[in-house]
Design brief:
Length: 289
């Protein structure tokens, strides 16, 4: 990683909140896209049990509906979709989308058992385990030595693979996750610790034009490095990313790797979630600056 001073972001006073340089997700036609990747994160969050408990105390209907709906994840992962990035290209079975269905099943089983909610708990747990194995084995590409963006393998990369340990699908120290972290850091690198979500040449998304490096992906890399015990590298990357904030402490969705300028949505909540989550991850791993 370069010791060069990070190029500061734009002064927020000179900008209108919204889309900066490039298209970001603007014009993606999101209403017409099908993406499984986002919704199960809610049921998979660390506070899901507390939220379900609160709902149960208030009458239980929301929690019970959530458990019932989780059953759909048993088969939903088999449906081709547009993935976490909501691409416009033809649908595929994305590894991250399948992983989010695994999260829904695993957490639904845990929550239902703990709170005594109705549902096929053992069936959810069994299916979650089977789906985890399928993700680890089915998406693995032996030649490329990495998990792949699609569940049927192929070796093409998507930085959302770095989120698998964060969703507790598999451990950051799992040998295949360590290898995937290395592959993403090398092959999706935009320089100075920045990462592209994917390479358009390898993973056409049906959207014209180029995009910048996606900041959240670099924070995911921080989390993986920290959980793998590579604290010095993780802390160095974290500091370099935080140094890119505007004078008012705000970050954009993307960074132009050549100029350091902000691109895409500004300010971007996902980037700030990365700041918080990675900071907590570093502290939990024992880092002390």
């Amino acid at each position: 990683m370069s010791d060069q001073q990070a190029t500061p972001g734009p002064d927020v006073a000179t900008l209108t909140i919204g889309i900066l340089g490039g298209t970001g997700d603007q014009g993606r036609g999101l209403a017409r896209r099908f993406a499984l990747a986002g919704n199960p994160v809610i049921i998979g969050s660390r506070s899901a049990e507390r939220a379900a408990a609160a709902a149960a105390e208030l009458g239980g209907a929301p929690a019970i509906r959530g458990m019932t709906n989780a059953d759909a994840a048993r088969t939903a992962w088999t449906q081709p979709d547009q993935g976490i990035w909501e691409v416009r290209s033809e649908g595929r079975v994305f590894t991250y989308s399948a992983a989010m269905c695994q999260v829904a099943l695993d957490r639904a089983a845990a929550i239902a058992q703990r709170l005594g909610l109705p549902g096929p708990v053992e069936g959810w747990r069994t299916e979650a385990g089977r789906l985890r194995e399928l993700i680890v084995d089915g998406s693995w590409d032996e030649d490329a030595q990495t998990l792949s963006e699609h569940l049927d393998g192929g070796g093409t990369l998507d930085a959302s693979l770095l989120a698998l340990p964060l969703r507790q699908v598999l451990a950051a120290k799992h040998p295949r996750m360590v290898a995937t972290t290395r592959a993403v850091a090398e092959r999706l690198s935009a320089g100075d610790g920045l990462l592209y979500r994917y390479l358009h040449t390898d993973s056409p998304d049906g959207i014209a034009g180029d995009e910048g490096a996606f900041l959240l992906c670099s924070f995911w890399l921080v989390d993986n490095l920290a959980q793998q015990g590579r604290l010095e590298e993780a802390a160095e990357l974290y500091a370099s990313l935080c140094a890119r904030a505007s004078p008012t402490g705000l970050l954009s969705e993307q960074i132009n790797p050549s100029t350091g300028e902000f691109m895409g949505n500004f300010p971007q909540a996902f980037s700030h979630i990365g700041v918080i989550f990675s900071g907590v991850t570093l502290a939990a791993a024992g880092w002390r600056s």
